[in-house]
Specification:
With 192 residues, the protein is an alpha+beta fold. It has one domain. It contains five helices and five strands. Its main location: mitochondrion.
């Protein structure tokens, strides 16, 4: 079992911080060289617990688990961006186009935005992984001093972020999109 490693966080750390683990890094170590199903499940359980405990920084050594986690975070980011940008595009399309013309642009954008919002809400709102991002800043990674890990070249580093503003924007854009889209559809179908 890996234990928390106590170090000073890099200066300018953007993590939200946890009351319980303010200056610690959780390292999910690769326990088996062949990395069988048992090792994967054990590392996954350890990662889940670290996510729930909200460590400011989580280092994932097992390559497969790190890649899976990075992909899952990428999917969540994609759903979030699709909701926001599709919603903004749909609302702008509805606002800029006259009432009786071209609904082919804003309708698909609003539909995709609302679909991504539903998918994000169903799969991500309760997932503790939503509070983390994959760290790509080379200065912050260098400040973590990961040289003493067994596989320091292929680790994935997750940092805790405060996603309250992101969730507010996400929900506000989805609500605005649903409202504008519903009003425009009502106007379109009731006027004909």
């Amino acid at each position: 079992m890996a234990s928390p490693v106590s170090i000073s966080p890099p200066s300018g750390s953007h993590g939200a911080g946890s009351k319980r683990y303010t200056n610690e890094i959780k390292v999910i170590q690769e326990l088996f060289q062949d990395y069988n199903a048992l090792g994967y499940k054990q590392a996954l359980a350890e990662l889940d617990q670290a996510l729930i405990d909200m460590y400011p920084t989580i280092v994932i050594e097992p390559l497969r688990l790190g890649d899976d986690t990075a992909r899952w975070i990428l999917v969540g980011n994609l759903l979030h961006r699709t909701t926001v940008w599709g919603g903004i595009g749909g609302c702008l399309g509805v606002a800029l186009l006259p009432d009786s013309t071209l609904l082919w642009l804003p309708v698909p954008l609003a539909t995709v935005s609302l679909g991504a919002f539903v998918a994000y809400t169903a799969s991500w709102m309760s997932d503790p992984c939503r509070n983390y991002q994959v760290e790509t800043d080379k200065q912050r990674l260098a400040a973590l001093n990961l040289n003493n890990l067994s596989s320091s070249n292929s680790v994935i580093v997750l940092t805790l972020t405060d996603d309250f503003k992101r969730r507010c924007v996400h929900s506000a854009v989805a609500l605005l999109t649903a409202s504008v889209f519903s009003y425009r559809m009502y106007k379109y179908f009731c006027s004909t």
